[in-house]
Every structure is written in structure tokens, then in C-alpha cells.
Amino acid sequence: MFIVDGSRTPFLKAQGRPGPFTPVDLAVQAGRPLLSRQPFAADAFDEVILGCVNPHPDEVNPGRVAALRLGCGPETPGWTVQRNCASGMQSIDTAFHNISSGRAELVLAGGTEALSHAPLLYTDEAVNWFADLFAAKTTKAKLEVFLRLRPSLFKPSIGLLRGLTDPVVRLNMGQTAELLAHIFRISREQSDTYAVESHHRLSRAHDSGWLDEREPMIGPDGTVYDHDTGLRPENSVQAVGKLKPAFERPDGKVTAGNSSQISDGASWVILASPAAVEQHALEPLARIVDSEWAALDPAVMGLGPVLASTPLVSRNGLVLDDIGAWEINEAFAAQVLACIEAWSQPEFCRDILDLQLPFGRIDSERLNVDGGAISLGHPVGTSGNRIVIHLAHVMKRLKTRFGVATECIGGGQGGAMLLERV
Description:
422 residues, alpha+beta, Peroxisomal Thiolase, Chain A, domain 1, 15 helices, 37% helix
């Protein structure tokens, strides 16, 4: 089963207020140029699958809404998947299995997220106050409820912060990264250095024209968005080092500067069977060889890439040196660095991965060669899709045969996908 094309929007860093695009707006902006260059009509797809973690209230089942707006036709099923940070990869994996089983020949699989539209919520106390007010039948009863009115009832609960806190272990995602930094002795300087390098790599990719899948967007007011707005090519380790820890003060290692950015963006991948490739004379970018999902304690969810990628590589008769390009979603610099350390530690590989020898240390020149979520942004439902399509382009550029795209997943999971260049 083949990846034949893909596209993404520029990723727009959230600015503390709703951005110009809803999740479906983003998906449509990413999809229109992609579909316009195909040799088949938009209604040729057997299904449309879209990952999204925070659907807009006016866009229930964004996969279906996007499919209709993209002109895929009323008879093409469209649906939405949700696996936190891997939602966009889940859409690809589902399409992969549906095509492999013969249920589909041509699938549009994507991911979208507009985190700037994450809602502000009333607290339970405020909701109960409104409920009592609506339930009051007499003027006296309504007055009694009004006398209980307090300004604090209107203090909003930030939905995004609640969503980024694990409901089982009661740690937010940044705190799980701090735990990994402690376990694997990742220093603040290491994290900051990695983060700055992410910005420099994305800047180089931008200047070199290596972001082949990125398509410009036009906003409702006519504004053109043609670049990733979180990129800071002027970043330095000294400047980033001045930022205060975001989650564990005063000595924490995780800051706003070495964490992924809250952002808006969408991505699509077109997947085709061999028969569809021949029928439409398509030129594949890569073949999906295999995929793997893993689970672990939510408190150390950042190690998900290790637990998912290791069996994936081994099951296909490969070793670390066979993988010429890696995309590990940069949730946090400390989290990526912890994965690298885990793979190189004999005890971890023996006790956790059941390996007789360490898996090895990934060469930095093979890992996130064009930057990642720290410099680019992490629209949660989108990132898993973006790293797959970008990996396919990187493999083509570097002329490497195999590549792995992988990410950690909030809630204690990991996902990985093995690609082979065609």
C-alpha cells in the first residue's frame, strides 16, 4: 500500500485568542491544492478519515464535514478518529489496514487541529448556579439564586489545560517530560540546545525549499499564510536559557522554549492500493511496510516511541543502521532526548525491550533533519500525519530506503510507522 501524495497547511502559533481557521477550515485549505493536482476526481476516494482531538462545536464529525466541503461527494463516507497526539497517524493506519484487507483502494487520510479554538469552560459550580436559576419557578426562588451570584463563578476553566492533564496519574504533559528528564538525567542545557537546533533546522529547510508538502492558506480577510509562524531562526541557547521552568519551579528542565508549540494546522495523505496506482497512473512516494502501537504508564508516556518503534523495526528484520531517517514528534526536547538515551542503555533495553544488546543511538543527522514540533508547532490531531508525509519527502531527498515516523501519545501510548522509499 502506497503513499502517493500529501500536503499540509502552514502551522500557525496560537496567539491567546481564536485563530482565523476552524479545524475543518484548515483541513479544506490543506486539501484543495492536494486534490486539484490529482489525475482523478475528488469523489474517487472510497473513504475520508480525519484525525481531530478538539472538534469545533459547529463541526461535529469534522471528517465528514471536510469530505463534503472538499467535493468528495455525498456518497463518500467521511469519519473522524481520535488517539490524542497520534490521531493523524491513526487515520493513515486505519486506511492502511482497510486497503490491505481489500475494503478500499483509494483513501484520503488526514489530521487537523485548531488549538487556538480550545474552549473556555464554566466551572461545575457555575453550571450548578445556572441550573438552579433555570429551575427556579417563582420570582422569590429566582431572587434567592441571584443572591448566591459571585464574580468567581465567571472565572473560566481553560479547556486546553484540562485536556493536557492526564486524568489517571494527574500529571500534565510537561510534568511527564520533567519525570523523564530526571530518570535519564537530561540537563536543561541539553534540552535548550536541542530546541534551538530544531529552529535552525526548520529555518534551513524553509530557505532550501525542502518543505514540499506545505501549501499556503488564504484567510477570511484575504491574508495569505505561507510560512510556519512559530519559527524563530534567531533563537540561541543563551536566549532560551533565560526562560523560567514552566512546570517544576525553580529547578525544572522543561520551558516554553524547549517544548512543542500550541498551534493550528492540518495535513492530508493520499493512500492507494497497487491497483489504484496502476489505474490512475500515480507515482508513489513511499510504501507503508508496517505499523505498531504500544502502551505504557501514562506518567512516562514520552517513552512511547521507544516501545512502538523497537518491535516494529525488529519484526521486519531490520536494525537501527537500516533506518536512514527518523521523525520523532518533538513533544518536548527532554522527551526526545530521553528516548535516545533509553535506546542506548543496556539495562533499559534488556529489562523493558527484551533485547540482549542496546538498540543503539540514533545519529542526529538522521533524526528530525528539518526540525519538528518545537520549532514548527504541534496541532495535536495533525502531527502524526505531518511526520509521515514529511518523512516520505525526507527519504526521497536523502535517498534512504527505510524510515520510521513515531510519536508519544498522551495517556501513555506510542505509535510508529515504517516506510520504504519507492
